[in-house]
């Protein structure tokens, strides 16, 4: 089982990316499970994910990196044991901290082959969010393997270069992919990263 | 003390389930009302000092789903329209917003304000909300 954490600020395009990846992997015959978490009392994204025929578990009314951490580990165990997923996507709330979720996964006692942590960043709003919530933005970028600089269809090349520089500065180890989940740009690359993690 | 990411981000959120009171309703009318509502709610949150995370809604109906979301009022509302019929006979709507710089109560107050015109337009009722009507909620 491969675990893919898709984190990122509110409205960055996490769900769109995850649905696309889920559909692609499903077409390859892979069993895909999705754990989606929303901070509010009601979940909106779970219904959308289900409408595409994907298997999702929705955790609401809290954040899986802190107040709902127990629910995450229990759900991971269930998905691993009962559903026998090939790929599990975890989409936390847009205010979750990936480092905390990575720790929860490591200590969950769930067996998995590999893990990929992706942070989705909205290219159009990145600088604004950085100005408004610098510490928080910084901590969302830390401890991920890949930063998907998303919504590149909404910005020009100069903006992409500026935001890429900012992201490289915050996490020099992460690979930055310029994506448009809406248009499907560079999603092949993300899919290939996931498939490459499957033990032959 | 355990770190709470919502507090760390100075974030507030609120969401609720709505029942459609006046069914059947034309899909076109539902689309128009929902788009108007979601844009107005996002604008009101901004006017109250919020940095919008997302403001979104999904209608789950007998003819498919309809989702609108706003992440920036300058960009307007994004839509996922999977309604496959002219008339909605059955359905519920979930609405939620998560923002920076407002607390949960302020987000709820904004929703209360913006639900009034939506209710006048198509008739909605909050799940769990006590009222004098004879509908089953």
Number of domains of chain B: 1
Strand content of chain A: 15-25%
Order of helices and strands of chain B: HEEHEEEEEHE
Tally of contiguous helical segments of chain B: 3
On the 0-100 scale, what is the average pLDDT of chain A?
A: 92
How much helix is in the residues of chain B?
25-40%
Q: Distance between termini of chain B?
A: 40 Å
How would you describe the overall organization of this protein?
The complex is a heterodimer of chains A (about 200) and B (about 140). Chain A has a seven-stranded parallel β-sheet, sandwiched between helices. The longest helix of chain A is centred in the middle third of the chain and has 15 residues, at about 70-85. Chain A is globular and about 50 Å long. With about 200 residues, chain A is an alpha/beta fold. In chain A, strand 2, helix 2 and strand 3 form a beta-alpha-beta unit. Chain A has helices at about 15-25, 45-50, 70-85, 100-105, 125-130, 135-140, 155-170, 185-195; strands spanning about 1-10, 30-35, 55-60, 85-90, 115-120, 145-150, 175-180. Chain B has about 140 residues and is α+β, with helices and mostly antiparallel strands. Chain B has one domain (about 5-125): Alpha-Beta Plaits, CATH 3.30.70. Helix content of chain B is about 30%, strand content about 35%. Chain B is built from three helices and eight strands. In chain B, a hairpin with a 2-residue loop joins strand 3 and strand 4 (about 65-70). In chain B, helix 2 (about 25-45) runs antiparallel to helix 3 (about 105-120). The longest helix of chain B has 21 residues, at about 25-45.
């Amino acid at each position: 089982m491969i675990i893919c954490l898709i984190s990122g600020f509110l409205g960055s395009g996490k769900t769109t990316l995850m649905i696309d990846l889920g559909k692609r992997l499903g077409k390859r015959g892979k069993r895909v499970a999705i754990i989606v978490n929303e901070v509010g009392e009601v979940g909106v994204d779970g219904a959308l994910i289900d409408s595409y025929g994907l298997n999702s578990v929705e955790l609401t009314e809290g954040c899986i990196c802190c107040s709902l951490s127990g629910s995450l580990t229990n759900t991971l165990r269930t998905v691993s044991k009962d559903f026998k997923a090939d790929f599990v996507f975890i989409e936390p709330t847009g205010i979750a901290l990936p480092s905390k979720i990575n720790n929860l996964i490591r200590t969950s006692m769930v067996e998995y082959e590999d893990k990929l942590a992706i942070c989705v960043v909205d290219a159009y709003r990145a600088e604004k969010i950085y100005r408004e919530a610098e510490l928080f933005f910084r901590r969302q970028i830390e401890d991920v393997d890949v930063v998907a600089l998303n919504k590149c269809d909404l910005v020009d090349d100069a903006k992409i270069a500026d935001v890429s520089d900012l992201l490289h500065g915050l996490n020099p180890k992460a690979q930055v992919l310029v994506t448009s989940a809406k248009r499907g740009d560079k999603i092949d690359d993300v899919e290939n990263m996931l498939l490459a993690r499957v033990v032959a | 003390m355990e770190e709470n990411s919502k507090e760390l981000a100075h974030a507030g959120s609120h969401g609720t389930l709505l029942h459609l009171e006046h069914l059947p309703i034309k899909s076109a009318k539902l689309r128009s009302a929902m788009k108007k509502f979601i844009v107005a709610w996002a604008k009101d949150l901004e006017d109250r000092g919020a940095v919008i995370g997302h403001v979104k809604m999904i209608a789950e109906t007998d003819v498919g789903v309809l989702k609108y979301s706003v992440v920036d009022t300058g960009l307007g509302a994004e839509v996922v329209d999977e309604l496959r019929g002219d008339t909605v006979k059955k359905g519920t709507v979930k609405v939620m917003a998560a923002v920076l710089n407002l607390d949960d109560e302020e987000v709820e107050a904004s929703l209360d304000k913006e639900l009034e015109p939506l209710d006048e337009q198509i008739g909605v009722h909050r799940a769990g909300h006590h009222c004098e009507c004879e509908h089953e909620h």
